[in-house]
Amino acid sequence: MILDPLLTTAAEDEPILWLDASLIDCDMHSFNNVPNSNSVSAWYDRSGNSIHMTNSHNDQPTYQPGMMNGNPIVRYTNDQLYGGRDLTMSNFSLFMVVNPTDIFSSAQLFSAYPRGNQGSGLFVYFQGDEFRVDKEGVSLHGQTNDSVNLYAVINDAGGAGIKIYRNGSTAFDGTGNVTTSATAIDEISLENIKVGENLNADMAEIILFDTALPNNKTIAVEEYLVQKWGLPGIVRF
Length: 237
What we know:
This protein is mainly beta.
């Protein structure tokens, strides 16, 4: 495990899942041993929980160096990686840095669901020009765009419900209203996790905490990601 001190200092919590494209070249066995191939057969979890994302088939994303603020990214062209572990969570905070190259299709960014019951899972995806978060009757959505975005999904099962942000903005539904749901998402299984499906995008970093980070810690993680990936347009701090 290589844990970025800036991240742990920012959050004061350790993530349950952490996929960082800037460190993927530290795992040379993440790449297929094929000349001139940058196919990513595994994206290793840096959290210490060993929730590694893998794919042994042909639909593997590729490693592209120096693409975002001098850092490498994982490029998806209708590719996917998957993994999981027998863990559950209720509260959570999910952060994703992604540059969509085609937002006008149904494209899954992240999903988590129990074995054999995909219908009760958490799904984070693009639908047309919208960013959506769905789980069993809880559905949130807001407009997105075809540039680098920082998405944050915060679920407080015992309090404020669920809220989503894009580029730090508290107004994320295309109308100037804060996108929230008083009904929080209930327990989520991490038995099956997919990162990408029918997705055309550059993925830079995914950080998942099994707690609803308060506003000050959410902002701190966003600041960490903004500085690391050179993101524009953050308005909340």
